[in-house]
Write a structure and sequence with these properties.
The chain is of the alpha/beta class. The chain has a domain of 268 residues: Rossmann fold. The chain is built from 19 helices and 15 strands. The strands form four sheets. A seven-stranded mixed beta sheet has the order 1-4-5-15-10-11-14, sandwiched between helices. The chain has a four-stranded parallel beta sheet with strand order 8-7-6-9, with helices on both faces. The relative contact order is 0.15. The structure holds pyridoxal-5'-phosphate. The site of pyridoxal-5'-phosphate has 20 residues, from helix 6, helix 13 and helix 17.
Length: 461
């Protein structure tokens, strides 16, 4: 007989430490056509490993272009991941009930990492390879502070120094993230900063610039390129970063098997695309292999920074100043500075090229949602499930709730899986503003985007 204590009511699907994936999944192996080449910003020609060598350790450069389907995860990385992995998969029974939906909703919870998001999954891997190749210092940028704190923790564990250029609006809104990074031993400055030529230039043009991820990337890249002891580290967008995150989806697949269920819809928010890729790529593998044709993979972005849904699929710089290689991606233009949204991690003008390729080929879908209804979804989730979601993750929740309500209307028992990419314990200022009715929606910034798109680099490919 089924009682409330039996498996029938199971809420949490956990795995053993032995089940931490031993290999990353590399989606490039399953593409029918190769991804567009990455181009040198000066010559416009495809770049080679030697062009990236000043910025990244060779092992990560190899991973960036690898065509191998499975890449072994070194024990030195898995030993650190053990501290919080495998992360739990929850069945959102209380949210289902609150919505009155016949849909089954599951979420993979990445907020259990020490830094409170999925980002340590790649931070640990990147710190490991830098250490192994004799690097002693890493420079990086951070938006809302999640990436900086993930890298601060990871570099500390491998005995590396860490300098973080933190987007100024977040530096001001989120002092606790800075203190977290400093607790883990990193040096943190608000970006634009006077520490780099790129930062000085922006400050000269606009002393009150709120900063953006693009600007902060320019500063960190310049720092790494001009110092012998320093390499650069990026928390999203790049192929190897997305691959490091695939442990999320690989674990989730095993956990869904344990739940005797299969996903119909997979949802995650997308800033640079890494947590979306991490959860969805192992599922996209089935679609690329011609199986699971009806499976829907949905990336959710803010309507104030809608790179997939409103951007152009062209070559652009990854940063604001134009120091990085040119990559083909959905972009709002590298000079686009989004409104000071509370989901700081989603304020990026571009999107991971691998995610863009899948979008272009119709393998994945994208939806843009406004800020206020996103926080309404966050509150509904927190009140049903207990966990207070990061504002970034709340974008996914908005779409999950909309899909669950659609299932209710249609009387469909679909299974929805989403990535709860982090908790919102350092985002309570945003919750405070929402609860006080002070949060605003930002109009779709058509004019600003048009202006930024006019500044796209000319590329003849
Ligand atoms: C950084 C961050 C994001 C956005 O980055 P992606 O690379 O798109 O995943 C989303 N959620 C949380 C909690 C983050 O910290």
């Amino acid at each position: 007989m089924a009682t409330k204590g039996s498996d029938k009511y199971r809420t949490k699907f956990t795995l053993d430490e032995r089940d931490i994936p031993a290999k990353w999944y590399n989606i490039m192996a399953d593409f029918k056509t190769p991804p567009p080449p990455v181009l040198h910003p000066g010559t416009g020609q495809p770049i080679g490993p030697q062009d990236l060598a000043p910025l990244f350790p060779m092992e990560l450069i190899k991973q960036e272009v690898s065509q191998e389907r499975w890449i072994p995860i070194p024990d030195g990385i898995r030993d650190v991941l053990r501290l919080w992995r495998p992360s739990p998969l929850y069945r959102a029974r209380r949210l289902e009930k609150a919505l009155g939906t016949p849909a089954r909703i599951y979420y993979k919870y990445e907020g259990v990492s020490p830094a409170g998001s999925h980002k340590p999954n790649t931070a640990v891997a990147q710190a490991y390879y830098n250490k192994k190749e004799g690097v002693t210092r890493i420079a990086t940028e951070t938006g809302a502070g999640q990436w900086g704190s993930a890298l601060a923790m990871a570099t500390q564990m491998f005995g590396l120094q860490c300098k973080v250029y933190m987007v100024k609006v977040s530096y001001q809104q989120k002092p606790y993230r800075r203190i977290m990074m400093e607790t883990w031993g990193a040096q943190v400055v608000p970006s634009p900063s006077p520490d780099t030529q790129a930062g000085k230039k922006i400050l000269l043009e606009d002393p009150s610039s709120p900063g953006s991820l693009g600007i902060a990337i320019s500063e960190a890249v310049e720092d790494a390129a001009t110092r012998e002891d320093t390499k650069y580290s990026l928390g999203s967008v790049l192929n190897h970063v997305l691959m490091h995150q695939t442990i999320i989806g690989l674990e989730a697949k095993k956990q869904l098997e344990k739940a005797d269920d299969e996903a119909d819809i997979v949802v995650a928010c997308a800033g640079g695309g890494s947590n979306f890729a991490g959860l969805s790529f192992p599922f996209a593998a089935d679609k690329l292999a011609g199986k699971k044709k009806k499976l829907r993979l949905i990336a959710v972005e803010p309507s104030a920074c809608p790179s997939l849904t409103k951007g152009r699929y062209v070559y652009d710089f990854g940063d604001t100043v134009g120091l990085t290689p040119l990559v083909k991606m959905h972009t709002l233009g590298h000079s686009f500075v989004p409104a000071p949204l509370h989901a700081g991690g989603l304020r990026y003008h571009g999107m991971a090229p691998l995610v863009c390729k899948l979008y272009d080929e119709g393998v994945i879908e994208a939806v843009a949602v406004p800020q206020i209804s996103t926080f309404q979804a966050a509150l509904q989730f927190a009140r049903a499930e207990g966990i207070i979601p990061a504002p970034e993750a709340a974008h996914a929740i908005r779409v999950v709730i909309d899909e669950a309500l659609r299932c209710k209307k249609a009387g469909k028992r679909q299974t929805i899986l989403f990535n709860l990419s982090g908790h919102g314990h350092f985002d309570l200022g945003a919750y405070e503003a929402f609860l006080a009715g002070k949060l605003q929606d930002y109009d779709y910034p058509a004019e600003k985007i048009e202006a930024a798109l006019r500044g796209l680099p000319k590329v003849s490919v």
